[in-house]
Each structure stands twice: as C-alpha cells, then as structure tokens.
Design a protein that fits this description.
Number of helices: 3
Order of helices and strands: HEHEHEE
Distance between the termini: 47 Å
Strand order of the largest sheet: 1-2
Number of strands: 4
Shape: elongated
Largest sheet: 2 strands, parallel
Structural class: alpha+beta
Strand content: 5-15%
C-alpha cells in the first residue's frame, strides 16, 4: 500500500473529532486535498498548516456565551455540556431488548449509570 492509500486507510479508522489538522509542504497539497472529503465527515473543523485550540470533551472544559461565542447561548460549545448541543435524542417504543444497544437495554448488561424514568440508576 502506498502513501496516499495508507493515509486514506488511516483516516477511515478515526472516530469523530472536534477538529482534524493536516500539516503539509507544497508537495503534499494534492494528497491532502484528496483526504478533505474524508476528514470533513469526522471533524467539525478541518485545519491546514495550523493549530486548533486545546479543547476536549471533559467536565472542566466549558465556554460559550452570547453570539458569536456560540450559536446556542443556553449551552456551551465544548466540554461535556456540549453534548447537549449536538445531541439528537431518539425514543424507542416496544423494541425488544435483544434489538437494542447494550447501553439502553432494560437489563443493563454493561452495568453503567444511567437515567431511567427520571431516576439515576445502575442495574
């Protein structure tokens, strides 16, 4: 497998991120351009030859405020509270447990903390 194919295969293994950064030389620009279609599917911001701000999805990382700091002033742009901003809730009704993801099955096979009918529980 050559360089361009290796890069494409590597990008295919990455999970979603806030940013994706590519550092290039003029000779690399064509290869980097070819990866752009893949990178934009896994990152909310793609940077070329720059450095992203240092953020993570963690409880200590919070910022936001009125426009332009955030387009959703009731929540933050980064940190664990940002999950609320990008969450797309799905309600499941009468779905058999064996068809659901382990995280939401009634028998809680993973033993994780979660909220069920408004109460925090760990079954």
């Amino acid at each position: 497998m050559n360089g361009p194919q290796q890069f494409a295969a590597l990008v295919d293994t990455l999970e979603g991120r806030l940013t994706a950064t590519v550092h290039t030389t003029p000779a690399d620009r064509e290869l980097a351009r070819a990866l752009l279609d893949k990178l934009e599917l896994i990152a909310g911001r793609v940077l070329f030859d720059g450095w992203p701000t240092g953020v993570e999805v963690g409880h200590a990382m919070v910022h936001g405020g009125p426009f332009p700091a955030t387009s959703a002033p009731s929540t933050t742009s980064v940190g664990s509270r940002a999950i609320e901003r990008f969450l797309r809730p799905v309600a499941y009704q009468n779905v058999p447990d064996d068809r659901l993801a382990d995280e939401i099955r009634a028998d809680d096979p993973l033993g994780i903390w979660r909220r069920v009918d408004g109460a925090v529980t760990r079954d």
